[in-house]
Amino acid sequence: METSSLYPLKFKPAFKEKIWGGKKFASFFKQKLDPNKKYGESWQISDIEDDISIIENGFLEENSLVDIIELYMGDLVGDHIYNRFGLAFPLLFKFIDASDKLSLQVHPNSELAYQRYQQLGKTELWYIIDAKPNAGLYIGFKKDTSQEEFLNALKQGNLEEMIQFHPVKKGDAFFIPAGTVHAIGEGILLAEIQEASDITYRIFDWNRKDENGLERELHIEEALEAINYKQGRGYKMDFKDEPNSSVPIVKSEFFNISKLLLDSPIHKSYIQIDSFVVYMCTEGEVHFFTEQDHEFITAGESILIPAVITDVDIVPNGKSELLEVYISHKPE
Q1: Known active-site residue 208
Q2: Is there a single domain that holds both residue 183 and residue 294?
């Protein structure tokens, strides 16, 4: 099989029911789902165990993400990424529909996650696609806090008062380093790009009970070492939309993420980055033309451009919006 035959790849989404989930994947993204279920997450591209994405287009259809990394290696993900991560795909892409608050939680950094599980940590970015009035995110402590103060607040039931509340609107983006206590508030639809980790320590769940009257499991002991107790700063990203151009949202060792607000065709050249590029469509419909192939995605869908493809023409069908994600060479 020739590696030159790689093409833009779409994957079957995995929809996950959540106690805090809603109906926006159907109403906002027009996806056909069971109207009686509350879906909280749409996993777009993943190689997390038991949730490995399956290709849904082209001659590689029904192959898994892991299968094709093994086959194509650096031609798929980029040589520097393959050398660094091997057969593991380093990022996880999701859409999240929160009709209720998610738990206050924390994710370990890579050092702790590797020590405990031989896995990556979980730094992530949230991009707000839609939000009801007065909706917001809980991210970071209001002031430097000790572990003792944290535990006392948890015991007294006023932990929420220690956490910063960030009002949000469509188009906002927030960078959440591993170790940051955080939660998504109710009434928010967002895109989540993160390190490929599913390690979550649930700290407080708003005294919520499931349909059986039971509270969800908490992970306080595991969280204590993972939490950064310093005052949180710099979570909201500062950027300004520029039509038909990649506007950087964040550049980090974990991922580079830009926004594209499109109303006319553009050409992209990736020859310098040696990385796969993932586009998540947050609004409209966008077509991707390579030398031999054509594919399109609509709002709520994603596509992976293999690293071996260096030139793509991107053509919106009317006003459209994309998030563009790749991994740059790790700083020395």
Answers
A1: no
A2: no
